[in-house]
């Protein structure tokens, strides 16, 4: 048996706004959007093979806790790119600040936090 990650679902303040920067930065497309659980709204954004389900409840609430300290916390989302320099330029253009750059086997990487406080790791194996 082979298993492949198909999607991840997490909560954001504004799914359409988050999907918009993902379109620009990662070149992803919106696969579906509509009403969701408990009067919320969801946008599925990604590629034909996998996506992120961006969910917003009717009344979103922010957390002051670190995901790294919570069981079940989302620590970061890893995104594989073929051109890390171009990706970093697009991340900066979207208004996010790259940090924690690293160059070690098997590839290069950097991180950034989006406007929801979600950390993304951008990695290239080229």
Percentage of residues in strands: 35-45%
Side by side, the strands of the main sheet go 1-4-3-2
- Major sheet, described briefly? 4 strands, mixed
- What is the mean pLDDT? 94
Distance between the termini: 29 Å
Unreliable sequence segments: none
Order of helices and strands: EHEEEEHEEE
The number of strands is 8
Shape descriptor reads globular
Q: Pairing-aware structural class of the strands and helices?
A: alpha/beta
Q: How many helical stretches? A: 2
The share of residues in helices is 10-25%
Cα Rg: 15 Å
Question: Can you put this structure into words, describing what you see?
Answer:
Helices cover 17% and strands 39% of the residues. With 126 residues, the chain is α/β, with parallel strands linked by helices. It has helices spanning 15-26, 84-93; strands at residues 7-11, 29-36, 40-46, 51-56, 77-80, 99-104, 107-113, 119-124. It is built from two helices and eight strands.
List the SSEs and their pairings.
Blueprint: E1 7-11, H1 15-26, E2 29-36, E3 40-46, E4 51-56, E5 77-80, H2 84-93, E6 99-104, E7 107-113, E8 119-124
Parallel strand pairs: 1-4, 5-8
Antiparallel strand pairs: 2-3, 3-4, 6-7, 7-8
């Amino acid at each position: 048996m082979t298993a492949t990650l198909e999607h991840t679902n997490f909560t954001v303040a504004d799914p359409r706004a988050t999907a918009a920067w993902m379109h620009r930065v990662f070149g992803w497309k919106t696969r579906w959007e509509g009403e969701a659980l408990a009067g919320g709204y969801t946008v599925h954004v990604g590629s034909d093979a996998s996506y992120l389900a961006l969910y917003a409840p009717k009344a979103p609430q922010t957390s002051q806790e670190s995901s790294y300290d919570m069981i079940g916390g989302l620590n970061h989302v890893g995104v594989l790119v073929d051109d890390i320099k171009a990706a970093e330029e697009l991340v900066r253009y979207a208004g996010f600040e790259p940090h924690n750059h690293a160059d070690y086997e098997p590839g290069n990487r950097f991180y950034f936090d989006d406007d929801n406080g979600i950390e993304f790791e951008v990695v290239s194996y080229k």
